[in-house]
Amino acid sequence: MNALYLAFSYLRYHWGRSLVLVLVAALIMFVPVATQTLLSTSERALVARGEATPLLLGSRGSQLDLTMAALYFSEERPDPVAMRQVETVWDSGLGVPIPLHTAFSSSGFRIVGTTLDYFDFRDLSLESGRGLSLLGDAVIGAQVAEKLGKGVGDTLVSAPENLFDLDGVYPLEMPVVGVLAPTNTPDDQAIFVDIKTAWVIQGIGHGHENVVTAADVAAGTAALAEAAVVQYQRITEDNIESFHFHGSQDDFPASAVIIVPGDIRSGTILKGRYLDSESPTQLVEPAGVIQGLVDRIFRIKSLLDVVTAIIAVAAVAAVGLAVFLSYRLRAREITTAVKLGAQKGMVLRLLAAETVTLLCIAGSIAATGAAVVSRNAEAWVGWLLALGA
Amino acid sequence: MWELNVMRFLRVVFVFAAVALSVSAALAQDRPRVVAVNQALHYFAARLFDGEAEVLFLVPDGVDPSFWRPSIADITIVQSADLVLLNGAGFAAWVDRVSLSRSRVVNTSAAVEEQFIVTRSITHSHGDGGEHSHEGLASYVWLDPTLAVAQAEAIASAIISRNLAASTDVEARLAALTSALMEVDTRARGSLMGLQGVAMIATHPRYQYFARRYGLSVSSLEWEAGASPTEDQLAELEQLTGELGARILIWEAQPPGKAIEAAEALGLQSVIFEPWASEGAHGTFLQSFESAVSDLSEAAALSSN
Amino acid sequence: MVHIENLTFGYGAGGFRLRVPEFTLAEGERVAVVGPSGSGKTTLLNLIAGILTPEAGRIDVAGTEVSGLSDARRRRFRASRIGFVFQDFALLDYLSARQNICYPYRITPALTLDKEARERAESLAAACGIGDKLDRHPSELSQGEQQRVAICRALVTQPGLILSDEATGNLDPDSKARILDLLFEQAALAGAAVLAVTHDHELLPRFERVLDFAQFRAAPET
Predict the structure, then answer these.
(1) With contacts defined as CB-CB under 8 Å, which chain A residues touch B97?
(2) Which residues contact B101 (CB under 8 A, 6 or more apart)?
(3) Which CATH number belongs to the domain containing residue B281 in this structure?
(4) Same domain, residue pair B173 and B202
(5) Which of C48, C100, C106, C157 to mutate to test the interface with A (most CBs of A within 10 A)?
(6) A259 lies within 8 A of chain B by CB
(7) ipTM for the complex?
(8) Does residue A30 register a pLDDT over 60?
(9) Looking at B161, B184, B207, which one is the last position of a domain?
(10) Model's pTM, two decimal places?
(11) Is residue C5 classed as helix, strand or coil in its secondary structure?
């Protein structure tokens, strides 16, 4: 008790030195734990998303691009795959195909055109509002709502794209009809619309006399939703009937198709059907693609571990030196204590108490930090992964 | 004392009733829910489920199901269904503007697409739904019993693949429905044998598949179902009758007596043939179909006399 | 209070040697120890305090033969019976004056820092004229004030013997006499004898007796 009292007095009096030592020691303990936590959480999150997505059908090309676009709604734009492929899978009866159209964005977030099956498949639930019902409806992820400050009743306008170079294709204003509960997955960062709405944005489906023009805005008949967009389409109760699609839906595009096979056997049969390297489509297993990515990350991580270890050794040496020097500085105190009749081992205990106090404070800081990291790891990892997407 | 016993008895009855009600409510919740976009599909589904599912048809009376606009509440019901039976062939354009779960949607005419009849594009207006346009395909596929069988088969296979009812039961009911449809078809072929070459006019373009199946020649007007024709419409009818030498006018719903008289004045026998997109006024789809077929053959006999 | 008989001590073969045939310090007596540097004055204090162990002879302090005690007991004995005052004050910079005075209580289980001890520390400080500076750290005190704190620390455990090793050596001439008087005054109040090593000859008249150390210096053994 007395040793602790003296140790604490000493540390408090030399607070600057103690603070540096505590922080350095805390960092040495915290950094590897935090890195480990974040990395293992990101591995889990990545692998979990991959494993939760059994099969992915898309255009032949980079498997990673296809996976990133379909699972993480990244900016990669894999070549579109025709909806005919979706019907082919349906007709085979081997699995449930869920098309995804991720070519467009709004306010920096991907617009994900899909069918309602996606919501069941990912087990997404609404925090407010309702699900997609009508053409043009948008349901936004939790982070989209938070970052854009949008909620049910607000609108979003798709970013103007010159992707398809079609005349008369205007950005689409979409009413937000629902906000999803947070999931700490890329779904939090997506604006979900019916795939038919995505086709309207693409210009494949359109209505008549539904373009809000600069003149309307000037005349005050329409509010300007986005300064850069002077003309955009709006689907209203009055014009929704005029919306129609040209051509056969079989030819309409999707960015990728998630396939949920009925059983393992169906999955195997499906994989067999897309083995032909001449085929314009490919069927990938996202878990394998993600595992490849994770393995790469972890190769980098082992390098990081070595760096961390070297830094930790250097830091431990520095802290050790600092403690040793402080003991040297206190040699006189030790002599005094002995002369005054300090109990044998008292001096040692005094110094030990000081080191232990220091390590305990550093440890608590590191543990608090680690707890904060591990509690928020999923959210942060979700954010980090989305950042990289 | 006596009153006390009655009270006790009533209380017991009440408790039993409450339990029975809650049990039946629970059962009702467990039953699959099926939404059909027209009454013909509703009829097929109802026969195939035989009470094992709640089969819904949400279009209110008096609204053409082709052009129905579901409310958000309607859409919620449709989305909650285990099975949404689409007719295909461009019937019920609302499905293009509504978000549905692809896994629950069944296009019942997918297997017979190559048999679709392409029509010219017509824009017209209805009382209830504003201006609409028919384009592309004739959609009353089920009026050809052989195509109706294909639709019933599609529904049955959807029920079985989704495990909504026992497959042996569904297969037995499908066999019964198929044979009933084929019997109706056989009888219709017999009855309508003599009608090839008899020009007919329909007040609405509903009967393309029916006409093709039985080799009939049916031209179409664009009249409002169940309403009295206007002067202009009657003039158009007169002109068309003259051009075609038509003797039979097919109504899709019972028109006012005056309208029938007006048609008679033009030498046209009126026949009411409910196409069963909406619910018919009498009996079942099959009864309605058979009675229309016999009316047609009778009308043909009358007009030839 | 202190009785030494036939004491011999040496720092290794060929090193400095000390021989004290006999020395007695009465209770409450104030004795100065003088002698040239390196004559073993501090060594004598360390032998009396039990920090060093004699080769031969006997040292009794307050009726206890210090040289016969085990190390642990000697430490306890020292902590409770002997007060030390050093030339460099030996205060701890990280403790306040109050904490420094109470320091002996913190380093040995032989003493308990109770309310009485705390009150004694305060009254000693007040008596030494630093009652209002108890919460200051040594760096905030003058040298005279620091030595007053050291005197309080030496007396707070109520020892029977104060060993002073050049206690006034680092002080300016004006303070020397005042601090020594204060030490004597407080020692007298506590009934403690004072054995003080000093080089300040002008202070010698204040002692009851002066012990010239040159007489104890022995030739190195060959």
Answers:
(1) 134-135, 196, 240-241, 243
(2) A115, A116, A117, A120, B79, B84
(3) 3.40.50.1980
(4) no
(5) C106
(6) no
(7) 0.85
(8) yes
(9) B184
(10) 0.67
(11) strand
